[in-house]
Amino acid sequence: MNDLPSLLQLFLIFFYIGFFTIGGGLVAITLMQQQIVERGWITPDQFYNMVAISESTPGPIGINMATYVGNHFYGIPGGVIATFAEVLPSLICILIIARIILKFKESALVKAAFTTLRPASTGLILVAAVNVITLVLLNKNITIAGSAEGLINIYAINTANCIFYALCVASLFIFKLHPVILIIAGAVFGVIFL
Fold it and tell me: Helix 108-137 to helix 159-173 angle, to the nearest 10 degrees?
């Protein structure tokens, strides 16, 4: 892992994430991964554990993640700074929009901008979903010998996780089981089998 970010870097990174998060908290997850994991400040496993815990706790996942990551680096002050930085762009935008919304509500340019933002947000959410599914359902740390360079990384299906995932999907859509029950079951499954 590389050096930790300074408090100013933490603020600026989460301000950037909050500024470009259009489409909800799952979009923020993709941006956080790019800004935090790819810089080497935390490992992918740590990051996705944070995602799982943030998804399991009440509140918006983007805000929960900001609080968790900030707390991971600097305790309570880091959590407060990261959370404030994440929500500040939205607060500024809402204050500005509230003043001018009636004037531009019917503008073709505004309607076109929102129409274009929908597919972009959907794509960012899809990237976050694929990253989580890949990490959870595949074992990527399996290596085999035989290449000229040494070991080759391969992906293998994590059978237990796939079965549990299928059962959860069936319980959610077929049996209409409440999502909170599935979240608790997932936590118990993780503690017992991982």
Answer: 130
- Strand pairing class (150-157; 138-147): antiparallel
The DSSP letter of residue 158 is: -
pLDDT one-digit tens code per residue, 68-108 = 999 999 999 999 999 999 999 989 988 888 777 777 777 78
Rounded CA gap, 88 and 191, in Å? 36
Does the predicted model carry a pTM greater than 0.70? no
Give the separation between CA 11 and CA 19, rounded to whole angstroms: 12
State whether the Cα torsion 42-43-49-55 is positive or negative.
Answer: positive
Kindly state the tokens that stand for 142.
């399996």
Asked if residues 47 and 37 have their Cβ atoms less than 8 Å apart, the reply is: yes
The owner of tokens 């299906």 is: 157
CB atoms within 10 A of CB 146: 7
**DSSP-assigned states of every residue in 60-120:** -HHHHHHHHHHHHHHHHHHHHHHHHHHHHHHHHHHHHHHHHHHHHTT-HHHHHHHHHHHHH
Cα–Cα distance measured from residue 16 to residue 85, given in angstroms and rounded to the nearest whole number: 8
